[in-house]
Amino acid sequence: MTKRVQTKALYHLNFLKSMGYEYLEYVKFNERSNDELNLPNDLSSLEEIAKNCHLCQLSKYRANVLFGQGHPNAKLMFIGDEPSISEDEVGEFFVGRSGTMLVNMIENAIEMPISATYITNIVKCRTSHNIINSEDANTCRSYLDKQIELVKPQLIVALGEVAYDFLVEDEHLDFSKNRGQIINSKGHNIMPTFHPNYLLRNPSVKKEAYFDMLKIKAFLEK
Q1: Cα separation of 175 and 94, whole Å?
Q2: Chain-centre distance of CA 36, in angstroms?
Q3: SS3 88
Q4: How far is CA 165 from the centre of its chain?
Q5: Alpha carbon of 52 to those of 45, 60, 63, 177, 206: distances in Å?
Q6: I want to staple 58 with a disulfide (CB 3.0 to 4.6 A). Which of 38, 54, 100, 125 is the partner?
Q7: Domains and their CATH numbers in the chain
Q8: How far apart are the first and last CA of the chain?
Q9: pTM of model > 0.85
Q10: Chain-centre distance of CA 5, in angstroms?
């Protein structure tokens, strides 16, 4: 806004005020806590709200809302960054090459059926350019926080650096250092590991990811 336009706008507002109009204080709509949102205490109702959500620009590009999938009281929860192209098209998790790889990792290394786990993402809709901005992520945060609260997993596995950095406090922000280690952040046990997409591009680190899965299995068997 130029100074000339700003001056004209202020003049007009002062004119309206002289005629008796009153102005309310600016309301910051997005600065609400989870308590103020009054989200439901069951996953099914929460999912219905998420599926009809249009609070951010991602709703313009999605084919489907990928809210979450799995056991409602799973000991093990996986959190990725965003739905894949295949997941967005089909409307289900664990599809496409990365989804198939993750299934194999869980069932073969951890020796746990997929149905016993729970999976979701930071954002519930696919981005347009594979880049999650902080505004979209924070808009979806209330859904993710509520999912974690309701599922109450013993361990959260952060799939990739983007998901890990979003989940932990600042003092833990070092994916390469903490990968494969179980840390406690914000009252939750969290282990960062490679995202399946990264493993597809870098097959040489699959062995490291396999050992991460073995650590997860050992933790859950304690």
Answers
A1: 24
A2: 20
A3: helix
A4: 11
A5: 11, 12, 12, 39, 38
A6: 125
A7: 32-220 (3.40.470.10)
A8: 62
A9: no
A10: 41
